[in-house]
Amino acid sequence: MKKIISASFCCLFIGLIPVFSQSFTPRFVVSEKPLSKINPKLKYTFGYLEVLENRAKPQGATIKLPVYIFKSKQPNPPKDPVLFLVGGPGMSNMRNAPYAGYYQFLKDRDLIFFEQRGAAKAQPNLDCPAWNIAQNKAFKPDLSKEQKQQIMQQAARKCREYFTQKNIDLSAYTTKAIADDVEDFRKALKIKQLNLFTVSYGTQIAQVMMRDYPQSIRSVVMDGSLPLEIQYDDEATGNLVKAFKKLFEDCATNEAYKDLENRFWQFLEAKTENPLELKVKHPKTNKMYTFRLKGKDIIDFFDPSNTYGITKIPQAIHQLLAEDYSLLEQRLQKLLLYVGSRFQIGLRLSVWCAEQTPYNHLKQQKLASQHAAIKGYNPKVFEEGICKIWRVQKVSAREKQAVKSNIPVLLLNGSYDPNTPPEWAANMQQNLPNSYHIVFPGWGHTVSLNWGNPCGMQMANAFFNDPTKRPTAECFEKIGKPKFKVFGKK
Q: Cα 98–101–106 angle (5° rounding)?
């Protein structure tokens, strides 16, 4: 018989079958079959949290969420574990579990890897192969904008029909529902308080928990904060431009890149008027494709959110301005081989179409897209037409309001991050009086997951050990300004 940990043992029957009652009682069921091969030196418990898909339907369908609970390397750790929530929406946390030994939190506390409902290893998961196939088809350069939209809209219809046939309630997959799942887990395990380690979209789950379950949370680390009140699509273009301006400002101290910013924007503006034409051979079929790239297309080949590649961006732009387009050609070849997404598209669509798209300000987006160098740039995660097809229930205005809380919070950022810029976290501090904000110079998105330099995670762990003060670490003082690669030098 499987071991069951429940908030109310009297509500359980044999195995996984609940006794019929007025309401379903969430429970955690230990499994002897983990999803991944785990380092035998690590002690852990693996199992599934079973909760209602829609809590408004107490006798409705249930879903199962896989969870790893890794035991601390300390013999007698504090009873407030760290629970990790990844970004997305739509990313899986289970792929991180095999690397649990690299997470510094285990030195002091138990560490929990929690899967969001609808993610890859959840039951059900909201993966739809038709979407991946459509994205690959829509990438081909010989299609008009309207044709590409039709391809993706048709894919959305197929995916919605697919999930509907499986009786999945797409409106039940929201940030609020995921936060409720975490709280049900805490109750089932009889954990008094959790420390939340959250990155990117996961920070929104943390904010909902701070609002709805403040007594359940001891402290929170938000790495790359996405405030609930922010409209991502509205601000994405401006954030991207600001990130590049910051990068150019820093690299201009090098004589080789002194005028790089002006030359880059002028190049993009010129290509917006007269697109750059590149012929690229498909790596497998050898078929030739002709791409006509405008400024709005070219800028996406340079990613200031990726900490590992930031120091190479000025060099790559210098190469571009010297009419060496080999880098663009290589990346276009890789895109032609696109085979899938890191995200479970159903979960991503349900969250975005319920919480972001309905609250967008289209006029603001239109004004942002008029930047001459990248005119027409479209940062939208999903077009309005896609969300009309998805037809999920719009969340209430309460879910779009800033959260005020006295819970200790550590806000982490990379200075160049265009996805969740430092300004967002700085503004959140107005409502978080017991918060600290640390910006890593020259870094991009999610600094605590920089495995080349784990200083961000070290700072997060120091905060969990004492959330009453601003964490310090010698490694942070050593970071300094980014050392940009120079064209023509090793």
A: 130
Q: Can the peptide bond before residue 89 be classed as cis, meaning omega within 30 degrees of 0?
A: yes
pLDDT tens-digit series, residues 153-175: 999 999 999 999 999 999 999 99
Give CA separation, 471 vs 35, 67, 375, 478, in Å: 35, 29, 42, 15
**Cα 310 to Cα 348: distance, rounded to the nearest angstrom:** 27
- Two structure tokens written together for 173: 């997959």
Residue ranges of alpha helices (H) inside 213-361 are 232-251, 260-273, 295-298, 313-321, 326-336, 345-355
Beta strands in 268-312 (DSSP E): 276-281, 288-293
* Model pLDDT for residues 10-65, shown as the tens digit of each residue: 333 333 334 444 678 999 999 999 999 999 999 999 999 999 999 999 999 999 99
pTM for the model stands at: 0.93
Distance from C-alpha of 487 to C-alpha of 490, rounded to nearest angstrom = 8
In sequence order, what are the residues at sequence separation of 6 or more whose Cβ sits closer than 8 angstroms to the Cβ of residue 471?
Answer: 410, 436, 438, 459, 460, 462, 463
Query: Strand, coil or helix: what is 259?
Result: coil
Q: Please, are residues 100 and 113 in contact by the beta-carbon 8 Å criterion?
A: yes
